[in-house]
Amino acid sequence: MRAPADAARPGAAGSGERLEGEEENERATTAGRHTEEVAVASEPQPTARARRPTLSITEAGRRRAVLAFSGRLDAGALGELEERLVDPRLLDAQEVVLEMGDLDHIDLACAYALIRAATGRPQSAALTVRGADRTVRRTLHAVGLDAVAVIEE
Questions:
Q1: What is the per-residue DSSP string for 67-118?
Q2: Tens of each residue's pLDDT in the chain, 153 residues
Q3: How many domains in the chain?
Q4: How far is the C-alpha of 134 from the C-alpha of 72, rounded, in Å?
Q5: 107 lies in a domain?
Q6: What is the DSSP-derived secondary structure letter of residue 42?
Q7: Is 68 within a domain?
Q8: Cα(47)–Cα(116) distance, integer angstroms
Q9: CA terminus-to-terminus distance, the chain
Q10: Cα–Cα distance between 77 and 106 in angstroms, integer?
């Protein structure tokens, strides 16, 4: 009696060994699952700090005006930010302080709005950013606000 051809071939089904192609397929499938798990784990998670932005002028005078920020400044808040930045109380002040101690995030669009407002002010007017956290300061530096304003740490 002859043994079936499959049983005599190394790596054949039922022999306990795997064919080279099968191992590669399993590795690719396993690698795909692993990559998928990493992609899911690296997605940003919502934080408790993420909240609607508030922009309020807390102090206004000829000499000094303070605009306080809180929450997240992103594209959704851009219109409100631009309106606040052209408020006559800010435009008439010799010194404007941007109080950012409660600001969680600022996106590039809002940071560029700040630089447009800063470069539109008279050179004798002072602009100071106070209380911004490291990530907010990094964004402000990226758009060049540090060239026209004092950014306090």
A1: EEEEEEE-GGGHHHHHHHHT-HHHHT-SEEEEEEEEEEEE-HHHHHHHHHHH
A2: 555 555 444 544 454 555 555 555 555 444 444 433 333 333 344 444 456 789 999 999 999 999 999 999 999 999 999 999 999 999 999 999 999 999 999 999 999 999 999 998 888 899 999 999 999 999 999 999 999 999 998
A3: 2
A4: 14
A5: yes
A6: T
A7: yes
A8: 30
A9: 88
A10: 10
Q: What angle do CA 106, 134, 145 make, to 5 degrees?
A: 60
d(Cα 71, Cα 52) in Å, to the nearest integer? 5
> Is the Cβ–Cβ distance between 84 and 110 less than 8 Å?
no
- Whether residues 137 and 115 fall in one domain: yes
| Cβ neighbours of residue 103 closer than 8 Å, sequence gap 6 or more | 53, 69, 70, 71, 72, 73, 132, 133, 136
Q: Is the pTM of this model over 0.70?
A: no
- Domain around 30: 5-41
